[in-house]
Design goal:
- By secondary structure, the chain is mostly helical.
- The protein contains 2 helices and no strands.
- Helix 1 runs antiparallel to helix 2.
- The radius of gyration is 34 Å and the shape is elongated.
- The chain starts with a helix and ends in a 32-residue tail after the last helix.
Length: about 130
């Protein structure tokens, strides 16, 4: 097995992984949408069967809205964290493969002439005080 075979195998594995991630995202979203539709359907059926009892209708609609928003938020949060973790891992792997560039070294400025040990300001203070 040569080095070219390993590279092609790695590319195929990456494509398979990307396909798996797309399938997970699609089926996860489909599950959330179907669940939300089922919750909405049950809530509509419950409201229809109560014939105007407003206190119970408010309770049914509130719990249905809570369930739908919780389900959707959970899916989106998990998906966002998964994408963030994948980005961090891929970024870390690429950082390990390429060595960091050395920062440019600036030359240290040297004085133009000899430095005088005498201060230009007199000990009595500036002139005119």
């Amino acid at each position: 097995m040569g080095a070219g075979t390993m590279v092609r195998g790695g590319a195929k594995a990456e494509r398979d992984h990307d396909g798996l991630e797309k399938s997970r995202a699609l089926y996860g979203l489909l599950a959330v949408v179907i669940s939300n539709l089922a919750i909405a359907g049950v809530a509509i059926f419950g409201v229809w069967r109560l014939h105007g009892d407003s206190a119970v209708i408010v309770g049914i609609l509130t719990s249905a809205f809570t369930a739908v928003s919780t389900m959707t938020t959970a899916y989106l949060s998990i998906k966002a964290m998964s994408n963030t973790a994948k980005t961090m891992v891929l970024g870390d792997a690429s950082a390990r493969m390429t060595p960091p560039a050395a920062p440019p070294v600036a030359p240290v400025p040297q004085p133009a002439g000899p430095v005088s040990p005498v201060s230009p300001v007199s000990p009595a203070g500036p002139i005119g005080d």
